[in-house]
Amino acid sequence: MSMKRARTSRRRFLKQSASLAAAGAVVPYFSWTQKAFANQEKNDRPVIGCIGVGSMGTGDAHAHSRFGDIVAVCDVDSTHAEKAKNDENIGKGKADVYEDYRRVLERDDIDVVSIVTPDHWHVKIAIEALESGKHVFIQKPLTLTLEENQLIRNACQKHKDKVFFIGTQQRSDRDRFLRAVNMVQKGLLGDIQKMTVGIGGGDKGGPFQKTEPPEELNWEFWLGQAPLVDYIKERCHYQFRWWYEYSGGKFTDWGAHHVDIAQWAIKENEQGQGPTSFDGSDAKHPVPFENGYPTVDDSYNTSHDFAVKCTFPSGIEMIVTSRGDNGILFEGTKGRMFVNRGKITGQPIEENWDKDQFTEEDLMRLYKGKPYEGHKENFYRCIREGGLPVSDVYSHVQMMNTCHLAAIAARLGRTIKWDPKSEKIQGDEEAASFFARKQREGYEIPKV
Length: 448
What we know:
CATH class of the largest domain: Alpha Beta
Number of domains: 2
Radius of gyration: 22 Å
């Protein structure tokens, strides 16, 4: 194929996908699988850049490679980046390697970016990616603070022609989570009175040794907006999630999965919805806290033992807890049902209360009018056809409000009140101070 034809082909792809996304076009159903993409002309396939290629990022990159061509990999740890470049399912020895994600966003030939960094980098990179004209796949949890929820929502509203997709893959689990959501939404359990969301407890550890960072890691850049501190191996890579400086612990890690399903099921995931009260009095942390902040800097600090009661205006109680089984227990006036990644149980399931009431049409309703299929298949379908993906940003930030507020209540050890319409913490100046956090100079998140 000539270079002129290749450029024309890609321009046609970009123009078509942008116009369809903006219009929310309705198109006929056809099978949208990896084979459908594989059979396209090479220059009709999306061109992808992967930002963050550690363990989770590598897994996501493998999946993306089925649908497009990865031409760039980026990581502040050079060992991660080089490994991804030479992975036969990712860079194939040909992808360009970058340490600075901005080099990926500057490239006009890249259509899609996959962002799989630590949580505290998500929103800054995502907003800049949208501003640079990219479709965005990003891992959960999307945000670090309540303010970031608003910032990313505003950016997505500005760039409605771009597909913004979050890696909450439970939304594509037909036989467990989608079945549970459908059953609750159809009222088959009666009126929901209580939900228990088991998300496990955070790790305990420390004090850890402060050392020089390894040569392959740009530690200062890894820290980004977070405070500049001495390197501790256990602050970095997977363990970052046990530090409030970079994450929300299990509240935002597993909470981003299970709280999402719970609020989706009871239809409390639209703007202005969600719990209004968060009781964090039953929460413990592995180190001493003062005014909501850890008093030591060399140990994991996110809560490891908690049961935060979140109350909705309807009176429904949702207990977000580290105790008991990982999963969601729905309790209604007619029956109870438990669901997690391994099972869905309870009398309503054993007796098939949803017989003939969990159809392909029900699945398409949950998939926002798209046919049911794999998680990333839905992302790439939306790029080509338009429309909101099953894991959309708008419902995700509503759920993230809940996760962040539960964490704030746990950090302070008391009940806080939230107005979901104004999106403000009520009557508690100290709690309200957790709405946002100071961003280190040079790493500020753009407001668009």
